[in-house]
Design brief:
alpha/beta, nine-stranded mixed sheet, five-stranded parallel sheet, binds 5'-O-[(R)-(benzoyloxy)(hydroxy)phosphoryl]adenosine, ligase, ATP-dep_AMP-bd_enzyme, ligase activity, forming carbon-sulfur bonds
Length: 562
């Protein structure tokens, strides 16, 4: 019996701890798990193993950079082992859940690797989350501890964490990075930098962390990912994105999100032995100088940010972005109009990324023809991903047809953590994940995302795809960005409301001009917007995607159109 097996026996059987992770975790069926091992997708390595191996191979290479820190691989490996030992002294045991809410800063990396090495599970919260999100998340995860920071961007995260702790019974420990006045009962992270001790550590089949599903309401949907499955997605992503030791990946989006975490993200950069750089603020004013300063080679953005960066570059921003080779755009549909402008404006290769925290990630490849890069959301990263496009009855549509995307594979979950109700809705009887996305697959294998199952306006039985109408509105000379949502109508069921951001606030597009423009493009009359609401900004989800939910709410609260 090797050390790993001993650790499992000690922890799970001899001490007879009931392991809630196993209780709420849906494993792959045994035959599929064996296949993924045989196919060398799952290699039995853990994230801690990878970091330690990279540190042994190249101890002095830079692993992590932010505006205050620059750590080599040897330093990162040591720092995370030291914290893992300190956390164990505090009483955190393998399998415990630990909420991590940190902005993009170097400490994020040492904290998650410390938890990985210990076998405790980080629960990845976004800096934008507040009490209304964190309390249910902590409750659903039965979290033992929370790690956050003091004041960041004028918000007091320590005070928020103390409020969450006071409402969640399981939450016993509050650890703070960089906090001047600690809330009562909280400790400073630096108190747990112990001399590294041998820890039993997890095995690769164990759950590594809990990720959050985007856009859930009610009980949060938690996504349990194992070392085996997530490391495979990280490795394949790093290969597809051609990362190597010279990569400098800039974490621009909130790093707790699956896209900057692993597609290929910070974990991909570490897998490749490259460097992770952090920016706490994604706007060009902060990010452009950092790209120049750190020599960033790749980063990832959501479409609204990609638009901002493109506009800034087109307007002649003077920062030197010549080190940046690849700009990834994903998280929401990048309109073709924007996709066409990104490469020329920023001097980069655009890569579209269509992925989900539940698993499947598709990429356009770096040598794809421009038509593929501009008009598609790429193809699965793994030959072992299985995809099907089905109608509302679950019957596969004809090749090339549009329908609901379902998927299974070596890094797509088989069920949410401890949430049978969500599983019944989101997984087929055979265990395939229903993505909720409406797609078509081109003959060349690339996917085109037509929208979310919910992002259709049903206007008296005529279905209008929000994405399709938005693409038309974006061609209007006075429209900078557009979002279509359905509003209740007593006669039609739904009416079409267009939220638009003007190019020039002094020239606000009117309903008449928008309708006649759309009509002039040869679009069916029933797709004409019924209402136009001009707004200066769109509300965002925590990761920068435009929040259709909040726009619908704004309408319900009386945002009036013209
Ligand atoms: C990523 O992950 P989540 O879990 O926040 O959101 C997943 C959903 C997808 O089901 C899809 O509806 C949408 O976000 N989405 C896209 C998209 N990328 C994601 N819709 C259209 N075009 C795209 N390129 O958002 C995520 C996870 C890993 C990598 C990239 C994104």
């Amino acid at each position: 019996i090797d050390r790993r097996d001993c650790s499992k026996i000690r922890w799970k059987e001899v001490l007879d701890l009931t392991d809630p992770v196993l209780a709420g975790f849906t494993p792959w069926p045994a035959d599929l798990a064996q296949r993924y091992r045989d196919q060398n997708c799952w290699t039995s390595e853990t994230f801690g193993d990878v970091l330690t191996a990279r540190a042994a191979a190249a101890p002095d290479r830079i692993a992590v950079l932010d505006d205050a820190n620059s750590w080599t691989y040897a330093e990162l490996d040591h720092r995370s082992s030291s914290l893992a030992t300190g956390f164990a002294r505090l009483g955190i045991v393998p399998g415990d859940r630990v909420l991590v809410q940190l902005p993009n800063r170097a400490e994020f990396v040492e904290v998650i690797f410390a938890l990985f090495k210990l076998g405790a599970l980080p629960v990845f919260c976004l800096p934008a989350h507040r009490k209304a999100e964190l309390v249910p998340i902590a409750g659903a995860a039965a979290a033992e501890a929370m790690i956050t920071c003091g004041t960041h961007q004028r918000f007091d995260y320590a005070a928020l964490a103390a409020q969450v702790r006071d409402e969640v019974e399981s939450l016993r420990h509050l650890l703070l990075v960089d906090c001047e006045s600690l809330p009562q009962g909280a400790r400073h992270l630096d108190e747990y930098r112990d001399t590294p001790a041998e820890l039993a550590g997890p095995s690769a089949g164990d759950v590594a962390f809990l990720q959050l599903s985007g856009g859930s309401t009610g009980i949060p949907k938690l996504i349990a990912r194992t070392h085996d499955d997530y490391l495979y997605s990280v490795r394949r992503s790093a290969e597809v994105c051609e990362l190597d030791q010279d990569t400098v990946y800039l974490a621009t989006l909130p790093v707790a999100h699956n896209f900057p975490m692993s597609s290929p993200g910070i974990l991909g950069a570490i897998w490749a032995g490259g460097a992770v750089a952090m920016t706490p603020d994604p706007t060009p004013a902060t990010a452009f100088p950092l790209i120049e300063w750190f020599g960033v080679t790749i980063t990832g953005l959501v479409p609204p940010l990609a638009r901002l960066w493109t506009e800034r570059a087109e307007a002649g921003d003077t920062a030197d972005l010549s080190s940046l080779r690849v700009l990834q755009v994903g998280g929401a549909r990048c309109q073709d109009e924007l996709a066409r402008r990104i490469g020329p404006a920023l001097g980069v290769t655009l890569q579209q990324v269509f992925g989900m925290a539940e698993g499947l990630v598709c990429y356009t490849r770096l040598d794809d023809p421009i038509d593929v890069v501009v008009s598609t959301q790429g193809r699965p990263m793994s030959e072992h991903d299985q995809l099907a496009v089905v109608d509302d009855n679950g019957v596969e549509v004809a090749p090339g047809g549009t329908g609901n995307l379902i998927t299974q594979g070596p890094y797509t979950i088989r069920g949410y953590y401890n949430n049978p109700d969500a599983d019944a809705r989101s997984f087929t009887a055979q265990g395939w994940y229903r993505t909720g996305d409406i797609v078509s697959v081109r003959p060349d294998g690339n996917l085109v995302v037509a929208g979310r199952a919910g992002d259709w306006v049903n206007r008296g039985g005529e279905k209008v795809s929000a994405e399709e109408l938005e693409a038309h509105l974006l061609e209007h000379p006075a429209v900078r960005d557009a979002v279509i949502v359905g509003t209740p109508d007593p006669v039609l069921g739904q009416r079409i409301c267009a939220f638009v951001q003007p190019v020039d606030p002094a020239q606000r597009p009117t309903l008449i001009s928008v309708r006649s423009f759309v009509r002039s493009r040869g679009v069916a009359a029933w797709k004409m917007p019924d209402t136009v609401v001009v707004v200066d900004e769109f509300p965002e989800t925590g990761v920068g995607k435009t929040s259709r939910k909040d726009l619908r709410q704004a309408l319900a609260d009386g945002a009036h159109g013209k």
